[in-house]
C-alpha cells in the first residue's frame, strides 16, 4: 500500500505541475472562450517525424486518420470531424463514430484526400499506419497544420512514456493537458500494480495472434512486448528474433515446448471484423490443452481494438490492463 | 545374349523402371522419418521414434504424423494435377497455378466464407471445387480460341486470366473487409495442421486413383481432338474428367493448406524431362517427386528459423521461381518443350 500511496502522491504532484505549466502557457495570451482558433493562440508540438509545428489551440475542423488519436481525443471528450472507415465494430465509448453521422475519409492505409480537402480542416492528425512522410506531404497540401502523432518507440521501456507524451500533446491542443496527464498517471499507477502482481505470480506468458488457423508468437521487444515489459510477465524462454516487431508463425507443438502459464490470445480475424474460425477454437486442441495455461484456465482472449488497432489511447491501455488482470 | 530382344531405352529420355519408383519410395521414407523427428517440441527427436513413449506418441499422433501425411498428399496431388493438366492441354507451361484454377478456388473459399459463414472445411471445399472446375473450364474454352497454342503464350494467357480472377477476388474481399484472409489462403502453410484438421485432404487419394486409371487416355487426348476421336475416344468427356480431377486436387489443397506456388508446374516438367512423356509411367514418379519436394520445403521451413516456421509457400516460391526461369530460358533456346 505504501508504494501505491507514493505513486498517487507523485501522480497528483505531477498533475499539479502540468496544470500549472498549462496555466502559465495559457496566461500569455488571453483565453478566448469557444472556437479559440481564431485568436491565433498556438501550442508548439514536436511530432513523430521530428517536426516542431505550431498548432492552433482548439482548432475547429479536425480530421484524424488514426484510431489511437481518435480514441485519445474521445477519452478527453473531444469529437473529431472525420474518421477512417472502420473494419471492426468500434468499442462502446466510440459509438458516435459507428453510425455514419460523422463522415469517413478513406481507410487507415489510404486516406481519401479529396474528401478531406472538402472539409477544409484546420488540423489534420495522422499516425500509425498513415503516419509516414508521403501521406504527411499530401496532407500538407490540404491543411496548414498537419502533425504525425504516431507512438513509435525504439526500446520496449519507451512504449508507455511515448504514449504518455502523445496523449498529453493531444490534450494540450484542446486545453486539456492536465486531464490527459491525470489519465496517464492513473494508468501508469495501475500498470505498476499489475506489474508487481504478475512478477510475483512467477508465471510465464505468451502472446499469440491467431489468424485463419495459423498462430504467431510475439515475444519481448515485439509490438506486444508490453506484456513482458510493462505488465511484468516473464517470457517463456523461446528464442526471440532480433527484429522482433512482427510475430513469428508457430506450430501448435510450440505451446507444449515452451509451456506458457498464461496465454494471451489476439483474434486478428475478430479485430478486423470477421467471425471466421474463432481463435479459441484453433487453440482448443490436444497440444495446447496440455499446457499450464490450459490447466490453470488462463487462456485469455484480448480485446482486438485495444491491442491491435488503437493501442496508444488511454481507454485502450485501460482495456489492456483489464485483459491482463483477468489472468492474475 | 538376350539384350538384342529388348529395345534399348532412349538414352536422352531415360524412361521409368520399377527401380526408380523404389528409389523414390526409399528416399521419401527416409525424408519422412527425419521429418517426424523435427518439430518445436524437442521432447520428440529423431532418436525417439522406435519405440515412442506414451507422451512422445501423443505429439507424433496429434501433430507430426498428420503433418507428414498432409505434406505428402499436398505435394503429390498438386504435382499430379500439373502433370495431367500439361498433358490434356499439350502444353508444358500449364498448371493449376497458371490456368486460374488456384485463383478460382480462392474465390470459392471467399464466397463460402461470405455467404455460408461456416467454419466447416467440407462446405468450403465443395464450393472451392465447384469454382475451380468452372474457372478451369473457362480457361480451356479460352485456350481453344487462341491461335498460338504452343509454348509460353498459353502460360501467359493463363497467368493473366488468373490475375483477373485474383483481382475480382481482391475487390470483393476489399468490399467486405476480408483482404487479410486472402494472404492466408494464398500462402500455403502446414503449421496449423493437426489431427482432425486435415482429413479432407484424403479426397485427393481417391481422385488420384481416378487420374491414374485414365492416365493413358490423357496422353492420347493431348495429341489433339481429331487424333483422339480417330482412336475412338470421347475427347470431350475425357477432357472433363481430367478437368475435374485437376480442379478437385487443387481446390482441396488450397482449402486445407493454401496455395503452393510453382509446384504443379516445375515438378512434372523436371520429371518428364528425365523420364519421358508417358503419363501412366511418370504419374507415380511425379507424385513421389512432388511429395518429396514439398517435404523438403516444409522441413527447411521448420529449421531455418527454428523453433518458429517459414510457410512452405515461401520456400517453394523461392526455389520454384528459379526452376521456372530455368525452364523458360531452356525453352527459349529451342529445346523441345
Automatic annotation (TrEMBL), chain A:
The keyword Signal applies. Residues 61-328 form the Fe/B12 periplasmic-binding domain. It holds the Pfam family Peripla_BP_2. InterPro entries: ABC_transptr_periplasmic_BD, Bact_iron-sidero_bind. The keyword Coiled coil applies. It is found in: Cell envelope. Its main location: other. Residues 1-24 form the signal peptide. Residues 177-204 form a coiled coil. PROSITE patterns: FE_B12_PBP (PS50983), PROKAR_LIPOPROTEIN (PS51257). Keywords: Coiled coil, Signal, Transport. It comes from the Bacteria. PANTHER family: IRON III DICITRATE-BINDING PERIPLASMIC PROTEIN (PTHR30532), PETROBACTIN-BINDING PROTEIN YCLQ (PTHR30532:SF28). Belongs to the bacterial solute-binding protein 8 family. This is ABC transporter substrate-binding protein. It comes from Ornithinimicrobium faecis. The lineage of its organism: Bacteria, Bacillati, Actinomycetota, Actinomycetes, Micrococcales.
UniProtKB/TrEMBL annotation, chain B:
It is found in: Cell membrane. The chain crosses the membrane at residues 21-45, 65-85, 122-140, 152-174, 200-218, 238-262, 282-301, 308-329. Keywords: Cell membrane, Membrane, Transmembrane, Transmembrane helix, Transport. The keyword Transmembrane applies. Its main location: membrane. PANTHER family: FERRIC ENTEROBACTIN TRANSPORT SYSTEM PERMEASE PROTEIN, PETROBACTIN IMPORT SYSTEM PERMEASE PROTEIN YCLN. Belongs to the binding-protein-dependent transport system permease family. FecCD subfamily. This is Iron chelate uptake ABC transporter family permease subunit. It comes from Ornithinimicrobium faecis.
Amino acid at each position: 500500500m505504501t508504494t501505491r500511496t507514493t505513486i498517487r502522491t507523485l501522480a497528483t504532484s505531477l498533475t499539479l505541475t502540468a496544470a500549472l505549466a498549462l496555466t502559465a502557457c495559457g496566461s500569455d495570451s488571453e483565453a478566448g472562450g469557444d472556437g479559440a482558433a481564431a485568436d491565433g493562440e498556438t501550442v508548439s508540438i514536436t511530432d513523430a517525424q521530428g517536426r516542431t509545428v505550431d498548432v492552433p489551440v482548439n482548432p475547429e475542423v479536425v480530421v484524424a486518420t488514426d484510431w489511437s488519436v481518435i480514441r485519445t481525443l474521445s477519452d478527453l471528450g473531444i469529437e473529431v470531424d472525420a474518421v477512417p472507415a472502420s473494419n471492426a465494430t468500434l468499442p462502446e465509448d466510440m459509438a458516435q463514430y459507428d453510425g455514419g453521422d460523422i463522415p469517413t475519409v478513406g481507410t487507415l492505409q489510404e486516406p481519401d484526400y479529396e474528401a478531406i480537402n472538402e472539409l477544409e480542416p484546420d488540423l489534420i492528425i495522422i499516425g500509425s499506419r498513415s503516419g509516414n512522410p508521403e501521406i504527411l506531404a499530401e496532407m500538407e497540401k490540404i491543411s496548414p497544420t498537419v502533425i504525425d502523432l504516431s507512438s513509435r518507440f525504439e526500446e520496449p521501456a519507451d512504449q508507455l512514456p511515448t504514449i504518455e507524451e502523445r496523449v498529453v500533446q493531444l490534450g494540450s491542443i484542446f486545453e486539456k493537458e492536465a486531464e490527459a496527464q491525470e489519465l496517464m498517471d492513473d494508468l501508469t499507477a495501475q500498470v505498476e500494480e499489475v506489474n508487481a502482481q504478475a512478477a510475483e505470480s512467477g508465471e510465464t506468458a505468451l502472446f499469440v495472434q491467431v489468424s485463419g488457423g495459423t498462430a504467431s508468437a510475439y515475444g519481448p521487444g515485439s509490438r506486444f512486448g508490453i506484456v513482458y515489459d510493462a505488465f511484468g510477465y516473464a517470457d517463456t524462454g523461446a528464442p526471440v528474433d532480433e527484429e522482433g516487431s512482427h510475430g513469428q508463425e508457430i506450430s501448435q507443438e510450440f505451446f507444449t515446448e515452451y509451456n506458457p502459464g498464461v496465454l494471451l490470445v489476439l483474434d486478428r480475424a475478430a479485430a478486423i471484423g470477421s467471425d471466421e474460425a474463432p481463435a479459441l477454437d484453433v487453440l482448443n486442441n490436444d497440444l495446447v490443452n496440455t499446457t499450464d495455461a490450459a490447466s490453470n484456465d488462463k487462456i485469455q482472449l484480448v480485446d482486438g481494438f485495444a491491442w491491435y488497432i488503437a493501442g496508444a489511447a488511454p481507454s485502450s491501455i485501460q482495456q489492456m490492463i483489464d485483459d491482463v488482470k483477468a489472468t492474475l | 545374349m538376350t539384350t538384342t530382344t529388348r529395345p534399348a531405352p532412349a538414352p536422352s529420355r531415360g524412361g521409368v523402371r520399377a527401380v526408380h519408383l523404389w528409389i523414390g519410395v526409399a528416399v521419401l521414407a527416409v525424408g519422412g522419418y527425419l521429418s517426424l523427428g523435427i518439430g518445436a517440441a524437442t521432447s520428440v527427436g529423431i532418436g525417439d521414434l522406435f519405440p515412442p513413449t506414451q507422451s512422445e506418441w501423443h505429439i507424433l499422433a496429434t501433430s507430426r504424423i498428420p503433418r507428414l501425411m498432409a505434406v505428402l498428399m499436398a505435394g503429390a496431388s498438386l504435382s499430379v494435377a500439373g502433370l495431367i493438366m500439361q498433358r490434356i492441354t499439350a502444353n508444358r507451361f500449364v498448371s493449376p497455378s497458371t490456368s486460374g484454377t488456384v485463383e478460382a478456388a480462392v474465390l470459392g473459399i471467399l464466397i463460402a466464407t461470405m455467404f455460408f459463414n461456416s467454419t466447416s472445411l467440407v462446405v468450403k471445399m465443395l464450393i472451392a471445387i465447384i469454382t475451380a472446375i468452372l474457372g478451369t473450364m473457362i480457361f480451356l474454352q479460352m485456350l481453344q480460341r487462341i491461335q498460338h497454342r504452343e509454348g509460353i503464350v498459353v502460360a501467359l494467357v493463363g497467368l493473366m486470366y488468373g490475375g483477373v480472377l485474383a483481382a475480382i477476388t481482391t475487390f470483393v474481399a476489399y468490399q467486405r473487409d476480408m483482404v487479410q484472409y486472402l494472404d492466408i489462403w494464398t500462402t500455403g502453410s502446414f503449421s496449423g495442421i493437426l489431427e482432425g484438421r486435415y482429413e479432407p485432404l484424403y479426397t485427393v487419394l481417391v481422385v488420384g486413383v481416378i487420374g491414374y486409371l485414365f492416365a493413358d487416355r490423357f496422353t492420347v487426348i493431348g495429341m489433339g481432338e481429331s487424333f483422339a476421336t480417330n482412336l475412338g475416344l470421347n475427347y470431350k468427356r475425357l477432357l472433363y474428367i481430367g478437368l475435374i480431377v485437376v480442379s478437385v486436387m487443387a481446390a482441396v489443397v488450397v482449402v486445407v493448406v493454401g496455395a503452393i506456388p510453382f509446384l504443379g508446374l516445375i515438378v512434372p516438367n523436371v520429371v518428364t524431362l528425365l523420364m519421358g512423356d508417358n503419363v501412366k509411367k511418370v504419374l507415380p514418379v511425379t507424385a513421389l517427386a512432388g511429395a518429396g519436394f514439398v517435404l523438403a520445403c516444409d522441413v527447411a521451413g521448420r529449421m531455418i528459423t527454428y523453433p518458429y516456421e517459414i510457410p512452405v509457400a515461401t520456400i517453394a516460391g523461392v526455389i520454384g521461381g528459379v526452376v521456372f526461369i530455368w525452364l523458360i530460358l531452356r525453352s527459349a533456346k529451342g529445346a523441345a518443350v
